[in-house]
Structures are given as C-alpha cells and as structure tokens.
C-alpha cells in the first residue's frame, strides 16, 4: 500500500489534498505534517513512497525540507506545492532533485497524474535496486585463499578512484568478475559498465565499435552510430582481451585516455567522454610490446594498477567453496533440489589439473549435478568428470 506524506502548513490545503488522494484510491495511506520540521522527523522514523511538500512554510521552508530529506532518504520522490509567486523557486527545486511541482490551488487531474507517475518512478527505483543486487551476485568473487583475499583488498582500495586497471591472468579465471567488482564498488556504479570483447570483433570493425561512425563512413554505414565509449559516458568501459586489439585502434584508445576525446569513424568532430577504462588480457603484454604487436605507451596508460588473477591450480583451497557456490546456483537455475558433494569427491576434484580454470570447474559441477547421485560421490567424479 503506497504511503504518502503531505507536508503543508495550511490546514485547508492539507484537507483538500488528503480528500483528493483518498477518493482516488483506497489503497493510498496518507499522513499529514503541519510544518517542515515535523515532516522531516516523520521521514526519519517512517518509510514513505511519496512526499507532497509546500514551499512557503514557517520554521523550515520547502527547499530546506527537500535538501534535508534528500540526505536522509534520497530515493523518496518529492512533489513540491507552489503558490503563484513561488514558481521560480519550484523550478529550482527540480534541479535539487524534486520529482515535479504543482501549483495552488491543485488541479485534480494534474495532481493525480503527478502522484501516479511519482509512485511508478519509486517502484522502478526499487525494482532496479533488486535487479542490481541480483546482477551483483552474479559477479561475486568466491574464495578465501591468500591470492583472492589480496585481490579483494586491492579492489577495496582502488574501486573508489578513477585509476585505470589492467587485469591479467589465464582464460577462465574470472577477470571479468574483478572488472565488475571494481565498477559496482565505485562512484560510477549508478552508470553502466560497457563490455567490449576485443578478440571477438574483426580488426576492421573495432574502431567503429569503440568510437562509432557517421553515415557514409564506409559501405555499410547507413546512419550515424554511437560507439561503446559514448555508451559508457559517466560509467566504465571494460576492454576484455585488449591484447588482441589492432595497432590503429590502440592509437585511438591511447588518444581517448590522454585527452578524454574520441572521434567517430569518418568524422572530424571531437566528442568529449568521461569514462573509466578497465582492461584485461590473457597475454603477456610486455612480450607483445617486444614483438611490435602492442604499444608500450598504451600499456603504461592502462597499467596504472595491475591485478593478476591466479589460475585455479594456484588456489586449490578455494575449490570446496566454489563447488558449493556452483552447486547451489545450478540447482536453483534448474529448479531442482540442491545436491551435495561427498568429502572424497571434493578432495578428488581438488587434485584435478584445471587447465580451463573456474569456467571448466563450473562445467564439471553442472555435469555432475545432472548425471550424478543425490550425493555426488568419488565414483561419480571418476565416471562423469573425466577430462
């Protein structure tokens, strides 16, 4: 049931607003506060889905109330109530975070539409938070080994900065998890993280993919198109497998890092971007530099912070936790009861040579859950997990 707070010093206006809302829907729970101080105190102690707040009030005016509530519970949409002389102030409150404003005396349809839209917005914010938590869980780093604890410590120190990070390690070790953790724990987390797999894009298309193009830049460019750097504005761009990027594209990425400027393919106009760059590779970039396949100046721009993700064979103590995590997740995805692994089965899996790293381990766990008994035994491992 949506809970709405009316903060208004004029009792007749409060009664009108309460009557309109009560007659509109019997599912609205409406509370009143006769001044700003009382309203702020109510918000501190109770949860509301929407606040209607007058601008001209004694003790504490509407602008002060808006600023105070945005510090306490910024997710609550606030609709400001303005007299004719308050319109300029009402518009300014929008810049301070108000959802909208309505004029006195309140127009019935305008008020109800604003209330519905504000409540829809609040619901959307809640759903986005839930979705974000689910997405964040998908990128959780599992393990307590010394190597993983070290990486978690680095993420904690580095995430809040805009420092560029180069993540290295073999295929399947979870380099993308590190990138997502860096983004989710940063000040940019409310903006997108855009992933680009440099190895999956043909060299002749990588520049268009990263920086966009203008109509007519090449045969198939039938309209203007923004690139990944523009899409990541205000957020993070994750350049996975950057060791596979062509030298011409590397030169353009270098310029973007140096000047925060990009240029669409076929255009001569610069576009300013605010993007944090995180890169990853399974290659030895220093060797690539020696052999002329990677720019040394780009390497030094990217590798402000270096994070090396270890192979699974170098963190075998984490395998029991990873098995438990994957077993629970896979069972949930398949809608089946969770299967357990015997100690002997886990010990045997710890002894395997995991050349495919965590990705391979997850595949093996899924295979064992599908084909094995309710408790996965050593014999199940021998039978179904053969490499």
Automatic annotation (TrEMBL):
Against InterPro entries, the record matches this protein to: AAA+_ATPase, AAA_lid_NorR, CheY-like_superfamily, P-loop_NTPase, Sig_transdc_resp-reg_receiver, Sigma_54_int, Sigma_54_int_dom_ATP-bd_2
What GO biological process, any one, is recorded here?
regulation of DNA-templated transcription
Listed GO MF terms: ATP binding; DNA binding
Q: Which UniProt keywords apply?
A: ATP-binding, DNA-binding, Nucleotide-binding, Phosphoprotein, Transcription, Transcription regulation, Two-component regulatory system
Q: Where is the Response regulatory domain?
A: 3-119
Task: Provide the positions where the record notes the PTM 4-aspartylphosphate.
Answer: 54
Q: Which SMART domains match?
A: AAA, REC
Q: Where is the Sigma-54 factor interaction domain?
A: 141-370
**Protein name as it appears in the record:** DNA-binding transcriptional response regulator, NtrC family, contains REC, AAA-type ATPase, and a Fis-type DNA-binding domains
Annotated organism of origin:
Flavobacterium urocaniciphilum
């Amino acid at each position: 049931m949506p809970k709405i707070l009316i903060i208004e010093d004029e009792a007749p206006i409060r009664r009108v607003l309460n009557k309109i809302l009560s007659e509109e829907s019997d599912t609205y729970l409406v509370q009143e506060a006769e001044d700003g101080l009382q309203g702020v105190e109510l918000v501190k102690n109770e949860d509301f889905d929407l606040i209607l707040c007058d601008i001209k009030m004694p003790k504490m005016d509407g602008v002060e109330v808006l600023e105070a509530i945005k510090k306490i519970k910024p997710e609550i949409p606030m609709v400001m109530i303005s007299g004719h002389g308050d319109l300029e102030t009402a518009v300014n409150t929008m810049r301070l975070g108000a959802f909208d404003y309505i004029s006195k005396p309140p127009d019935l349809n305008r008020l109800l539409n604003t209330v519905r839209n504000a409540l829809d917005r609040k619901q959307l914010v809640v759903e986005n938070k839930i979705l974000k938590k689910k997405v964040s869980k998908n990128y959780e780093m599992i393990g307590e080994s010394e190597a993983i604890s070290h990486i978690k410590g680095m993420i904690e120190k580095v995430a809040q900065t805009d420092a560029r990070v180069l993540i290295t390690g073999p295929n399947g070790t979870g380099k993308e998890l590190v990138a997502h953790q860096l983004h989710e724990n940063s000040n940019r987390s409310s903006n997108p993280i855009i992933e680009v797999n440099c190895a999956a894009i043909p060299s002749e298309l990588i520049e268009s993919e990263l920086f966009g193009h203008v109509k007519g830049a090449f045969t198939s460019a039938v309209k203007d198109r923004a690139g990944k750097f523009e899409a990541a504005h205000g957020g993070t761009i994750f350049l996975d497998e950057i060791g596979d990027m062509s030298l011409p594209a590397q030169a353009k990425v270098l310029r973007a890092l140096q000047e925060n400027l990009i240029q669409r393919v076929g255009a001569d106009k610069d576009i300013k971007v605010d993007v944090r760059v995180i890169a990853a590779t399974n290659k030895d970039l220093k060797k690539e530099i020696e052999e002329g396949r990677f720019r040394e100046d780009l390497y030094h721009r990217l590798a402000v912070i270096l994070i090396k993700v270890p192979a699974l064979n170098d963190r075998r103590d984490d395998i029991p936790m990873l098995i438990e995590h994957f077993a629970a997740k896979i069972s949930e995805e398949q809608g089946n009861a969770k299967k357990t692994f015997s100690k002997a089965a886990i010990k045997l899996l710890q002894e395997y040579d995991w050349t495919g790293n965590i990705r391979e381990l997850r595949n093996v766990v899924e295979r064992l859950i599908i084909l094995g008994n309710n408790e996965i035994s050593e014999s199940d491992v021998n039978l179904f997990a053969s490499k």
